[in-house]
Recover the amino acids of this structure.
């Protein structure tokens, strides 16, 4: 059985990723800050719940210790937790957005590394964004050209770079990041673009990268069509 942890998985892309991986036979741990929402989501899917706040070191440590005690290893880690941030751009807002979208990746990855090293095919997937891509935000043909979300975009640049650097420093573990596509979720509901693809569609790219074989790529940034410039 493949043991998978997904952060921020009580709704949206994370929830749908959990559903699809469960259908493939994974043992899925839904990580969520809110215990009530997380337990409800896990019960609805037949997954397992672990309380996990990516901005809290103790919470992260406790969550991985729980998985260690129950499973003894971790095969797949999906960094899905993220926030858009509000329109205010100041120091406190920057700290809040980066703490969740970038520093949270470091916290969870570092805590998970000992468990991932026990897996025969360890894989880490980061839900990033082309809103953090120099190529995309400067390309008038891309939707990211019109995004005005400085802190979110900068934090996603950091998330993608962390993916590359972890891939280099941990050659025995696959690390890949992805652009899921503009998705209709609670986080994007307030944006002026409207619409968006379904979480089910966006989750397919997460699932593809989460189920790579031992010879799969590492250190890449992809969408549903393959590797992207960034």
């Amino acid at each position: 059985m493949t043991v998978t942890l997904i952060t921020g998985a009580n709704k949206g892309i994370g929830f749908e990723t959990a559903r699809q991986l469960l259908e493939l036979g994974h043992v899925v741990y839904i990580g969520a800050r809110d215990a009530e929402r997380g337990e409800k989501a896990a019960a609805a899917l037949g997954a397992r719940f672990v309380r996990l706040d990516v901005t809290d070191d103790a919470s992260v440590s406790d969550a991985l210790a729980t998985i260690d005690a129950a499973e003894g290893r971790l095969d797949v880690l999906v960094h899905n937790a993220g926030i858009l941030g509000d329109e205010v751009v100041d120091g406190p807002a920057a700290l809040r957005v980066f703490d969740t979208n970038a520093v949270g990746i470091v916290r969870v990855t570092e805590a998970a590394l000992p468990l991932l090293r026990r897996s025969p095919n360890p894989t880490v997937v980061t839900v990033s964004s082309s809103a953090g891509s120099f190529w995309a935000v400067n390309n008038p043909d891309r939707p990211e050209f019109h995004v005005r979300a400085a802190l979110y975009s900068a934090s996603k640049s950091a998330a993608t770079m962390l993916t590359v650097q972890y891939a280099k420093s941990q050659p025995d573990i696959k690390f890949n990041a992805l652009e899921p596509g503009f998705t209709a979720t609670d986080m994007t509901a307030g944006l002026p673009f409207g619409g968006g693809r379904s979480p089910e569609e966006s989750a397919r790219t997460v699932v593809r990268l989460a189920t790579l074989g031992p010879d799969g790529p590492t250190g890449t940034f992809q969408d549903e069509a393959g590797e992207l410039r960034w």
Q: What stands out?
A: The mean pLDDT is 93. Strands lie at 3-6, 27-32, 48-51, 76-79, 123-127, 174-178, 220-223, 226-227. The radius of gyration is 16 Å.
